[in-house]
Structure formats: C-alpha cells, structure tokens
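Quick note —
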Amino acid sequence: MFSDVFGLVVVHEVNHVVDAFYIERNEELAGWKRRLIERAGDEPMNYLRSMFPRGFFRKNPQEFFASISNQWFANTSHTLRLALKRFDEGYTEPLNQFLFFAEVYSRGGNYTLFYDLDVKGRLSVRKVPVIRDSAGRIVALNAGLKWLMFKLDDNGKV
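Predicted structure written out below.
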C-alpha cells in the first residue's frame, strides 16, 4: 500500500494524543491496550506493525497505538485483511489489535470508522456498522459486502 508520507506522520503524531488523552484516561481501554501488548509479547508477527525488532512495543508501549494507527489510516480494509491473514497463520493478536482499534474509533457506538489515505494526501472515511454482545464488545462488523463475526472468550480475546 502506498499513502502520503506527510499524512501518515500527522496521523502517527495525532494518535499519540488520542492514546494519551482518550485511551490512557479510560481505565478499560488502557487496561485492554496493556493486555494486548503483554499477550503479543516480543514476536513481531504478533503485531499489526511487524517491521520493528523483537520486543519493540514491550520496550516502547507509547508507540503501540500511534504506530498501528499508520496502518489503520493508510487503509483500514487492508489492515483488516492483514489481521485475518495473520489469524489464519496462527497469530491471533493482530486481529485482537484490530478490534481494539475498531472499539476506539467507534467510541462505544454502533459503527466504527474505516480510512483510506491516498498518495496525494486525500483521506476518505466511511462508517462501518458493528454489532455488540451483551457486554458491549464488538462481535461483528460489516466491512464491505458481508458481515464478519467474531467469537470472543471471557476475556474478550478472539
């Protein structure tokens, strides 16, 4: 995927603010983020952003949300396909990370936001409907022509 580099730098830095002022000030989201990093551990393939060295996000947890936001905003649909591919390969955490992002950008509502940033810096956004279970967790989303359903365990892990 190719996107506007300046736009992605802005996305990355703005999402440091989203992390600090929205996620970290919300006990549930902050705990969820910490558990995602803990479960993914040091293995790069356990992350949506896998180009960093082993243990990068455990050593630099402040980069977790901002870094993955680069992918989310470059092309959310492509990020979902990557999460599903990794899941099929036995790496379940990228899909859990994807659902975390879907939750953050849903702000608890009945849709989340999917983005696409082209090479000319044009950012498009679309609303993607979500379905929640009785605990309020996203268990399905309609990312195109079909619904994707997710089975979560008691801890909210796919």
